[in-house]
Amino acid sequence: MRHAILGVGAIGGLIGTALGSLGEDITVIVRPKTLPSFPRTLSLERPSGPLTAPAKTVAELTEPVDVLWIATKTYQMEAALAAVKNPPGRVVPLLNGVDHIAVLRTRFGKDRVLPATIAVEAEKLAPGRFIQRSPFVRLNLASSGEPLLGAIIRQLGDLGFTCQFIENEQTLLWSKLCFLGPFALVTSASGRNAGEVLADAAWKEKLTSAIAEACAVANASGAEVEAKQFQAIVDNVPPGMRSSMQKDLAAGRQLELDAIGGTIVRGGERYGINVSTTMNLIAVILSKAVAA
Fold this sequence. Notes:
single chain; 292 residues; alpha/beta; N-(1-d-carboxylethyl)-l-norvaline Dehydrogenase, domain 2; five-stranded parallel β-sheet; 46% helix
């Protein structure tokens, strides 16, 4: 099957390398200025052992592909899509938040877009070189994608991925955001890793409150989630784990606050749900970003 990767950062690199290592045909879409020097082999360091995969590189996608995996930051997505000149058979976005699904369906059509989420701590070390720092990769996809991707997803399971097809798209999308949103906001606001947050009663209380707020908005949006399941996940993440937002804030990079925190706040306003903890965390992060 032919795959293209739009957004060859940590997540796109991880997915591209993993798929390519299974023998899938991989094309990565890179910026024109990067094209001449981008390596033709992707490599991924991971706790269970390294993976490598050959990949074609293009600045624009002009050839047909079966699946376009989108792994840009949410604020980069629309500009990056200008490089997609040939409509793909299916689009699998691995972005944070919820609102991007409607945008992509307007562009490509409802049935072509297969919502998906991924949870992993990974980083780009250099062009074409990536590292998976967490011991887990959790990849969930809408059940409408199972006929096309079922066999490949089972192979990813053999590589140690935990994968599920989920019927309710709101449950699929919010199940990531109910973990990611509170975790990213609290680690970024506090400047602490997971273990340090959980060891501090005040920050742990903020985390618990933010999880409850996110889950309340999620259920009002049509998802079926329970706060206790996300609290259990947070309680068992590696103690040294940090969020991507926390790393971006420390490096002075643009943040995905709108997609991650803003989605929860807008939902609270829409459904009349108290999301004051989330709002306060966002305010702290914005003050830190301005100070930096």
